[in-house]
Amino acid sequence: MMKNTDKTLLSNRLTENIQTLYSLLPISQSFDLITRDLFLGETRAFFLGINGFCKTEILQQIFSDLQDPLYTKDGHIRDLTRYMNAKIGYAQTSLCDNWEEIVKNVLSGPSLLLIDGFAQAVLIDVRTYPVRGIAEPDTERITRGARDGFVETLLFNTNLIRRRIRSPHLTFAIHSVGTESRTDVAVAYLGNCVNQDLLDTLSHTLEALDITSLTMGAKSLEELLVPKKIWTPLPSIQTTERPDVACSYLLEGHILIIVDNSPSVLILPCTIFQFTQSPEDYYKSPLTGGYFRLVRFACIPACLFLMPAFLLITAYFPQVAQKWSLLSTESGNLTPLQLIIYVLTVEFLLDLFKYSASLSSGRFSGTLSIVGGLLIGDIAVSLNWTSVEILFYAAVTLLASLSLSSIEFADALRVYRIFLTVCTSLGRLPGFLIGVTLMSFSILLTPTFGGMSYFWPLFPFQGKALGALLLRRPTAKAQPCKVWDRGKVHRRGNAT
After folding, report:
1. 458 belongs to a structural domain
2. For 339-369, b where at least 16 C-beta lie within 10 A, e where not — what string?
3. Given CB 3.0 to 4.6 Å as the disulfide criterion, which of 69, 209, 223, 243 pairs with 160?
4. pLDDT at res. 374
């Protein structure tokens, strides 16, 4: 037999293949790489796997059969393909002769079997991954409906989608991102209703990404797909941890991006109106669901303008504030500087409460936020560090922010509100108007992936689609029987 001189391909000598394997992987240094020298009949073999990624029971059965003299009548292996197909029946197997592919597969979980006399390796897929239990996401809780949620294992997430959509058109295209991490990224779509141009753009973008790793999983990929400027805080890609939400968008022609080791699924294309939707609407009657959807729409301007408008009127138009009874008699003597300091202080305290409650244990977060708010608010009023009215309007603003289903969208509105508050403090009414103008430009310049419109169906205008977004329709009329044309808008800064 001729010796293979290509270093990227396997040799037909087992000793050379083992030496190459030791040079490619830290087998002697890394404790989780397990190896075994084997004899399959009278033929030498070598096994490599990752401890914790292998289903031990299945491997024991496979090698027990391969080394059983009654099972292996012929001690010499002459045809590797026939041997693999005839002797290994407990798992998915494949042959590979390229070292790069072999190392990639071994580090992903499949086990490796090298056999003397063959320039091919047998990859045995008996992998298993550590995974947490499937439970309802904390950030997307609902009163009724399914209680399952995506987890950090890609295969489990695809199974949750496949369980709900049993269409032959459902496709999961796999990509590998990161030269070091080699993170698996699955693109899910329905072939009969997907936007093919957007799908091709996404596939080319994923293949062209030249990065080391996806450090923060889906969030890192989101920033790579849609690069943003610091002055555009609104999210450009919607994410969800609920399989029912992901499947509903999939049936409407959207594309899902599932990143291994991340429970969040990215949804493309994205519009600003998607962040006003909630699965809770569809687990209520159409009238009730539509009412609460309109309430959320009303919470957006309240979250954005309530505190800046209150500061503007009370600090610089006291006659209007007195006429509308925005301040009590005791607080009516506050100077504009005091009002500005009070409002900014309360905004900071709201962020402090929200951040501390989100990082605290679930057993203490509710108590911490309520007791802390009552104590600090009462003491601050007693010491004349703030006023009851400011605390009231800040509390209403916080409730409006918490009513929004998307945390990232609510946080972006909070950034805009603080910006408007600062502009109002510095420039009075002109500062408020300039702040609103700059904020509007920031929203309009929010980039999207593939040049899709961020304001569809308002622009390009589609009345039926806009009505479906604003009002909750009955299930019989809300079936995704057609794919909406969302309109492609070529703008500077869009990802291509």
Report:
1. no
2. bbebbbebbebbeebbeebeeeeeeeeeebb
3. 243
4. 56
